[in-house]
Design brief:
4 helices, about 0% strand, elongated
Length: about 70
């Protein structure tokens, strides 16, 4: 499963966008998407943290006790 870009990378990509590079150009270079850059820019303008979110999914099916027993 893919993980989100780090906050540091998001901030650096937004700095590149602010310096005049286009979203398409940045996306092509980094392998990201222009829509992500636009979304991050909106979040930054609204004062929302740029930290990556958590992945959706249910709770763990194996408890920590069961995990220890399974490893043994």
């Amino acid at each position: 499963m893919a993980r989100g870009y780090s906050r540091d990378l998001r901030e650096r990509l937004l700095q590149a966008l602010a310096s005049g590079l286009s979203a398409v150009e940045i996306a092509r270079t980094t392998g990201g998407s222009p829509s992500s850059l636009r979304r991050w820019k909106q979040k930054q303008a609204a004062g929302v943290a740029l930290d990556p979110g958590t992945s959706p999914g249910g709770p763990r099916k194996i408890t920590t006790d069961d995990e220890h027993a399974l490893r043994a």
